[in-house]
Every structure is written in C-alpha cells, then in structure tokens.
Amino acid sequence: MDHGPSVYSRRASGSTRHERHYQEVLVAGAVTLGLIPAPDIPEKIARELASELPDLLGGRIDDRVSWDVQVVVDPLTGTDREAPEILDECSERMLGEGWDLAICLTDLPVYRSGALVAADVSVERGVAGLSLPALGAVRLRQRTREATLWLAHELYARTKEPGPDGSATRGPRAEGFAGPFRRVDPPDEDMKEMDVDARFAATGARGHLRLWAGMVLANRPWKMLHAFKGAIAAAFATGAYALVITTLWILSDSVGFWRLLLLMVTAIVAMVTWIIVAHQLWERPSEREARHWVALYNGVSVLTISVAVLFAYAVLFALVFAAAWVFVPGAYFQTILRHPVSISEYLTLSWLATSLATVAGALGASLEDEETVRQASYGYRQRRRQEDDNNDREAGHRDGRAER
Fold first, then answer.
1. From CA 307, how far away is CA 142, in angstroms rounded?
2. Which of 83, 125, 188, 292 has the CA that lies 20 to 30 A from 310?
3. Residue 19 pLDDT more than 90?
4. Hey, what long-range contacts does 231-234 have (CB within 8 A, 24 or more apart)?
C-alpha cells in the first residue's frame, strides 16, 4: 500500500523487522499515524477520531507536513495483559503497514511495577500505548482524543531530530496529558527494560475508581438489557398478578422506606448472583501470578451485571407502576388503606411488587442471548478474541497451502 511521501525512512539495526527502527526527517512530506484499536469501544472511538485528527495534528504539532491517520483493528491489542506485548504488537503492525508512528488503543488495564499505567511512549519502537479504562467512563471520547494528540506530539517531538548516528533521539517533551496522571520521572527499571521513554500512571483511590468505571463502560452493560427480555416478561407477569392481592397493598403501606430499600437490594443481589452462577462468569485463577487479574475481572463483572440488573429493575418498575396506576382503582385502594391515597402510595406499591417480582418471577428464568451476557466478562472476551485470531491465522495458513 502506497501512503505517499513519508517524513520518516526506517533503517533496521538488526537482523529482523521486529528490532529497533530509526527515523530521519525529509525536507517535505507527510506523516502517517496509525491507530490500532482493540475491537468494540476502542475501535468505535478510533474511527470517529480518524477524520478529525489530521487537522488537529497539523494545528497542534507541525503544520509544515500533512498528516494522514489510518485505523486498523487488531484483536490481539485486547488479549495481552502485559504492556510489552501490546507495544510489540503495535510496532509489528506499524512496520507491516508502512506507517511512521502508531498508537495502540486497548480496553485492558495495564499494571507495571505495581502502578496503574495510562500511557506508555516508546521512541525506539516509534509507538505508544493508551489504556482507555484508565481514562474513566466520563467524556471518554474527548479524553481519548486529547491523549492521542499528546502521545503523537510526544513521539513526533522526540523522533523528528535524528541523532549523530541517525537513530531516534530523546527529544523535548510534549507538555500536558488528558486527566490527572503522574509522569513517572525519572524512568524506573521497568521502563528501561521495556524501552519506554515516557509513562503516565494513575495514582490513589480516584485513579482506581476511574479504572473500574472505564472497565464497566468497556463491558457495555446496556447491551445486556436485550438479554433480559424473557426475565422481565416473567417478572412483570408475577408483579401484575401480585397487584391484585389486597394484602400486598396493606403491606406496602406498612413496611416503610428502609425495608423496601433492603428488599430491593436483596432482589438485585439475588439476581446478580444467579446470572453469574448460571452463566459461569466467575473466573478462577489458573496460575498464581494471575490472581490479581482474576480478582479485578471478577469485581468488574459483578459491577457490570449489577448495572445491567439495575437497568432491568428500572424497566420492570416502570411497567409495574403503569399496571398499578391503570388496574388498581383509587377509591378501592383508599378503602383498603383507610386513608387518602396519592401517587406516593402507588409508587410504594409498585416498588414492593417490583422487588418481589424480581425474586419470584425473574430468578431462574433463562436469559436470552447468552453470548451477550458472557461478553460482560473481561477474561471471556479476551479468550474469544484470542481464539478468533488463532482461527483466522489457521485459516490463512490453510489457504496458503491450498494455493501452493
């Protein structure tokens, strides 16, 4: 594929294309920046940014060259837990595509030396890695755009001036980064071993809360709502039947707010537990060093499913409230309770009926689209990506042998 004149010409310093490459500036030309996102949300954001980044790169970094941004999705970007593998995969893809710079967008958390890493920059490779979950769930697209611009600036500023031997130099730093992240300075031993020149890490409890929010967003809990159709229908049938029982009217008027809240929490916990057990979403560590990953993934899966169940609970509550408002006569309701009724009594009755219906009706009902439910598990999604990639590679090998 011809990308036009390039700002950089690479010279391999070793016997393989995976070893360090070097760059030098031509008098005029273009810079090709490749974005390598993992599937799902990183891919969606990368494709949205690809059209607006060239103008932003020219305005903020260097308007003397033209910028081209290309997007290639790589499932392996979302399968490797370790940062070196992610950067190496990004570098290999960059060399294969003939790009000048590359930024890898992963939906995996990255921990190095006990720190939560938001971004790494490797001048020797000419690539950078960005972990989207570390950016959080709020304004993710805008934060990703700013972080991508910063990483491109950092790579370009550090590589546009070749050293005496023609190799890339550690040039001036680009200032600023999206979010409250700490630059690891001076570089630690892990950065030196990885050939990483700049690293930004999240710190404190806020950084980890932002990570959890970002990982839940990557799991897309709202997509699970489609799988709850059968469970919601079963629960609604139970709740609608319960509305005709006058004893439930009296009970809803007597239990009080805190008991209603406790019943709701109990119903949601029961539902979440059943989904995890029924669909085998609870992961177990296969090796000792993977325990912290499994604990993180299990925690995020529980939170993701809890959010999805809350969405389903809200839908069920709206349906039960509409049924109560239509089918429970106000005069008869007032006669049973022996005091004037208003919308608050209908809300209380609907709240109690929804919680009981969640436990009695939805618990045990089969969720539709099991694949969507299992996608809420980080570990499962990684394994599927790895399997799909392996299958694609095997198919490619078979086609190659058939042609020969």
1. 24
2. 292
3. no
4. 231/312, 231/361, 231/362, 231/365, 231/366, 231/367, 232/312, 232/315, 232/316, 232/319, 232/362, 234/361, 234/362, 234/365
Mean pLDDT of the chain: 78
Contact present, 53 and 69 (Cβ < 8 Å): yes
Q: For residue 88, what are the CA distances in angstroms to 11, 111, 116, 383?
A: 17, 16, 19, 20
pLDDT of residue 354: 94
Assess if residue 402 is contained within a domain. Answer: no
What is the average pLDDT across 257-286? 86
Residue-wise pLDDT tens digits, 175-210: 455 557 888 877 778 888 888 888 888 877 888 888
Exposed (0-12), middle (13-18) or buried (19+): which is 364, by Cβ within 10 Å? exposed
Query: Do 364 and 231 share a domain, yes or no?
Result: yes
Q: Quick check: helix, strand or coil at residue 25? A: strand
The Cα–Cα gap between 62 and 156 comes to 9
CA-based nearest residue to 293, from 372, 227, 377? 377
Residue 37: which of 89, 1, 84 has the closest Cα? 89
Tell me the pTM: 0.73
Q: What is the pLDDT of residue 108?
A: 83
Verify that 227 and 155 share a domain, yes or no: no
Structural domain span for residue 356: 221-387
Structure-model confidence comparison of residues 288 and 224, the more confident one: 224
Q: How many CB atoms lie within 10 A of CB 313?
A: 22
Residue type at 52 in one-letter notation = E
**In this structure, is the dihedral angle defined by the CA atoms of residues 397, 399, 402 and 404, taken in order, positive or negative?**
negative
